[in-house]
Every structure is written in structure tokens, then in C-alpha cells.
Amino acid sequence: MRIVVARVDDFPPGERRIVTHGRRSIGVFRVGDRFFAVNNHCPHLGGPLCEGRTQAWVRSSRPGEYVVDGERTLIACPWHGWEYDLATGQSFAGPGVPPARTYSAAVDSGDGESPHGEPVRMGPGGRRPGTYVAET
Ligand code: FES
User: Given ligand 1 and candidates 25, 38, 42, which is best to mutate, with the most ligand atoms within 8 Å of its CB?
Assistant: First the structure.
């Protein structure tokens, strides 16, 4: 399954989009130049996980000192605050807690495949063909 979410230019860093495909709701997040996709269903009690706040991973070796790890981002479920790694879905609520489901997210040049999997041929001047073709 492949879902086109938005043009990169229309999806600034720090934003998210929640898309629906069939019965699935998936949150797509842009953190810097990286994209993440997470199932919008919290493994705890099914809360809308992707509506929660995100924050960078913060590590501390001793009181008063901390380091913000810009490579890792957490999302907290808005219902009870359970946190998950955006990239892996790993939970940090305790042993035995299942991870949130994640999906691969990538930037496509737009000249590979259509959302339905067919190859897309570029038209004259690099224009992308539309859905409809006039009868000639
Ligand atoms: S439903 Fe998400 S933390 Fe409880």
C-alpha cells in the first residue's frame, strides 16, 4: 500500500498530517528533513496517538545537565501520556508494553509510480500527466 500525503514544499518541518486510507488512520510527521508514519491508534486503549505532542529525546547524565538528541523524537498519546519513539514505535511505558505500529515514509521525486502502483510517465516539459485522457 502506498499513500501520497503532500508535496514536500507544502509540508514544513514540525508539521503533521493525519491521513485516512480505508479503515486506517495514519499520522505522518516531518521532523527536520525526515518523515515518520505512525498508526493513529495507541496500543494502550486505542487513543488517537498521532494527535499527541511530540518532543525531542532528552538525555541527562546528572542533575542540571541535559542533552537534546535531535535524531530521536517521541510522541505522547493525548489520553494517558504513554510515549513512543516516532521512528520505531517503541514504547517507554514499561516492560511488556507493545510498540505503536509504524510505516515507512519517504519522499518520492514524483516520477516513479502513481499512488496506485502504475509507472508514471512524464509529459513534455516535465509535466506530470493527469488522470483523464481526451478521446482523440
Ligand atoms: S490510550 Fe494512549 S496512553 Fe492510554
Answer: 42
Ligand 1 center to residue 135 CA distance, Å?
Answer: 53
Q: How many whole angstroms from 74 Cα to the centroid of ligand 1?
A: 14
38-to-63, 103, 116, 132 alpha-carbon distances in Å: 33, 6, 21, 33
Question: Mind listing the pLDDT tens digit of every residue in the chain (136 residues)?
Answer: 889 999 999 999 999 999 999 999 999 999 999 999 999 999 999 999 999 999 999 999 999 999 998 889 999 999 999 999 999 999 988 778 899 999 999 998 766 555 555 555 556 666 666 767 788 7
Q: Which atom number of ligand 1 is nearest to the Cα of residue 46?
A: 1
Query: Between the CA atoms of 119, 126, 15 and 57, what dihedral angle is there, to the nearest 10 degrees?
Result: 70
